[in-house]
Design goal:
Layout: H1 2-13, H2 20-43, H3 56-81, H4 87-119, E1 126-127, H5 132-162, H6 184-219, E2 237-238, H7 243-263, E3 279-280, E4 286-299, E5 302-308, E6 311-317, E7 324-334, E8 338-339, H8 344-348, E9 360-370, E10 373-382, E11 385-398, E12 401-411, E13 430-441
Parallel strand pairs: 3-6
Antiparallel strand pairs: 1-2, 4-5, 4-13, 5-8, 6-7, 7-9, 9-10, 10-11, 11-12, 12-13
Helix pairs in contact: 1-2, 3-4, 4-5, 5-6, 5-7, 6-7
Length: 443
């Protein structure tokens, strides 16, 4: 590049100076020429690999990967150590995890580009005449590194996509992945994979660094130096061995490591978590055969869906009544059975529902029928705080089977839920409660 612009500059010197603008243009050419020559001398290396050295692109991608690894992993540890006893602390913890995920996605993109670049490039020969076992070990470690720099951020991304809420990736695109469902079991499974592959990555990085230091300080060869700018290229080399054997061993080590993770309980033991079927009380005229009790909150600008797995209901209802009180309903909810994405622990802690001190929430109401339809009018009690509720009901009655559903929005602070989070920067005030159930009359 510098040679080209140098020749063009020499040619331009012979042209007549017709005006000041053209003269200014020539000055810019000379300045660009000098700058290009300067950086060419500093880098002193080709863009692509050769049989004797790595090119500038390979070196930049290598050191960019190093930086991202040594930023992303400590960020996860730092975020995990942060307290979450106040809204300010939770916001700080949330932001730290968001940074971790964002750097992780960046590392995944760099890793993919690095591997694609490596496929198109010549693999430089080995420095010196290393021993056979050292060559094999280095090749295995390199394969493990390639596996890890892809799998660690990818499994973390899948875990994030399968979860709801908490620490969004800091980018304008979707937080979801097309083929990844919002599913607690999937989220937990890939959280386990992410945890195990992280240790494989750390082990491979440690061995890689140890090997580089050995070459530099014990062997005193150019293995480490040739990853730096202006590296020497006139050193003895030997050809690399076939990759199939080292690749096969790396795959075996990889699978064995994942197996060890399973042995120590890194993955969920059940295929899927199915909520318990809603139970019906003894004094009920109706038996609930299936039902769901869900909530929806807003956290960090994202909607989080939650579900109570353990609740019982007592229902009396006269479908033939046309006006007034036509039935009654009583529901008891085990607050500890709530799952709410990745913030379940915070939701049932003393910061919010405090399920240890207040293990049960209650809903008790009369079922009223008028010209507008059905409505349950009564009270909802959370954290021993009752609030009057008027819940619109949709009832589809088919002989002895009734499908019922309803939805209402309440304010969490009315029940004393999350009083240390009076603002909405971490979690919104509004909580949407909705249910659906199928009940059959007792004969």
């Amino acid at each position: 590049m510098a040679i080209f612009f140098g020749k063009f500059g020499d040619y331009a010197d012979k042209l007549p100076r017709t005006n000041a603008r053209f003269g200014h243009f020539l000055c810019e050419i000379r300045t660009f020429n000098a700058t290009a020559l300067k950086y060419e001398l500093i880098l002193d290396m080709p863009i692509s690999n050769t049989s004797n050295q790595f090119g500038s692109v390979s070196k930049i991608l290598h050191w960019l990967t190093v930086i991202l690894i040594f930023v992303t992993i400590p960020l996860a540890w730092y975020a995990a150590q942060l307290p979450n006893d106040s809204s300010e602390q939770v916001a700080k913890k949330l932001f730290a995890f968001s940074l971790h995920k964002t750097f992780g996605i960046t590392a995944l993109g760099v890793a993919i580009f690095r591997i694609l670049w490596a496929v198109t490039q010549t693999a430089p020969n080995l420095v010196g005449r290393p021993k056979h076992f050292e060559i094999s070990l280095a090749a295995i470690v390199h394969w493990l590194l390639y596996f890890s720099i892809i799998s660690v951020p990818l499994t973390g991304w899948i875990h994030h996509a399968a979860s709801t809420g908490y620490a969004p990736i800091l980018w304008p695109f979707s937080q979801n992945l097309i083929f990844v469902p919002k599913d607690p079991w999937t989220s937990e499974l890939f959280a386990g994979f992410h945890h195990v592959t992280k240790f494989i990555l750390l082990a491979a990085v440690g061995l890689h660094i140890a090997g580089a230091l050995k070459h530099h300080y014990i062997n005193k060869d150019a293995t480490l130096l040739r990853m730096l700018p202006r590296n020497p290229s006139n050193f003895p080399t030997s050809q690399r061995p076939k990759w199939i054997k080292s690749f096969s061993i790396a795959v075996a080590v990889w699978l064995a490591s994942l197996g060890v993770g399973g042995f120590f309980g890194a993955y969920p033991t059940q295929f899927s978590h199915e909520p318990e079927t809603a139970q019906t009380g003894k004094n009920s005229d109706w038996t609930v055969t299936k039902g769901d009790l869900r909530i929806s909150v807003t956290q960090g600008g994202s909607q989080i869906l939650g579900e109570f797995a353990d609740w019982t209901s007592t229902i009396s209802f006269d479908p033939d009544a046309t006006e007034g009180v036509v039935g009654a309903v009583k529901v008891e909810i085990a607050t500890s059975s709530l799952t709410l994405g990745t913030i379940t622990e915070q939701a049932i802690s003393d910061l919010f529902l405090d399920s240890k001190k207040f293990p049960t929430a209650h809903f008790q109401a009369d079922i009223i029928r008028n010209e507008a339809g059905y409505r349950a009018i009564g009270s909802l009690t959370v954290r021993d705080t009752p609030i009057d509720i008027s819940l619109p009901l949709t009832l589809l009655i088919n002989q002895n089977v009734t499908d019922a559903s309803g939805k209402i929005i309440v304010q969490r602070l009315d029940f004393g839920v999350g009083p240390t989070f009076p603002g909405e920067s971490f979690v919104g005030h509004a909580v949407e409660i909705n249910f659906s159930l199928t009940a059959t009359v007792k004969l």
